[in-house]
Amino acid sequence: QQQVKQSPQSLIVQKGGISIINCAYENTAFDYFPWYQQFPGKGPALLIAIRPDVSEKKEGRFTISFNKSAKQFSLHIMDSQPGDSATYFCAARSDNYGQNFVFGPGTRLSVLP
Amino acid sequence: KAGVTQTPRYLIKTRGQQVTLSCSPISGHRSVSWYQQTPGQGLQFLFEYFSETQRNKGNFPGRFSGRQFSNSRSEMNVSTLELGDSALYLCASSLEGGLNIQYFGAGTRLSVL
Lengths: 113, 113
Known about the structure:
Chain A is an all-beta fold. In chain A, 0% of the residues lie in helices and 52% in strands. In chain A, strands 2, 4, 5, 9, 10 and 11 form a 6-stranded mixed beta sheet that branches. Chain A has a 5-stranded antiparallel beta sheet with strand order 1-3-8-7-6, with no helix packed on it.
């Protein structure tokens, strides 16, 4: 129940294309869903996050879509750029667990020039 | 403002030894969390400290321990090292924990031979 599933494992997109990464969870106590971006040799960095009381959140080229009934959420990267090439992690947390985030296994995104 | 600093960056130990990793959070941040990152298990939460007290703990054996000092700096210790402890250990700090943004350090790469 504590798992967060993430797909695909890897993704190759042409420059200017849309990158879509999907995540699913089981624990209905989760109420905060961040996405992290990690470059090689660096720690993860928060990209964008959403609470389940909204269905979509957009920040620049990055959009989270959230489907509470299906217990799924996804990250859309519009106009993907080679600089977006990184590993992306979805995560989930419930208020009961402080900073105890459960992470998805990650998606390695490669954006071709 | 300086980011989260982890030392050392790389460490090589042998089975049975113990190791101590250090984390200096961003100035003013009182919550420090530790994560283990491996290719097989991904990012897994170890524990969170806030005001020198362990507030949350993940599902790791008692060989993994930590502490936090009055200046919010934190250390984690792994005793009786096993080969499976080889991983990237990440520290993250936030103002108060909870839903505050976590900022990750670059991690300490531990290799157990």
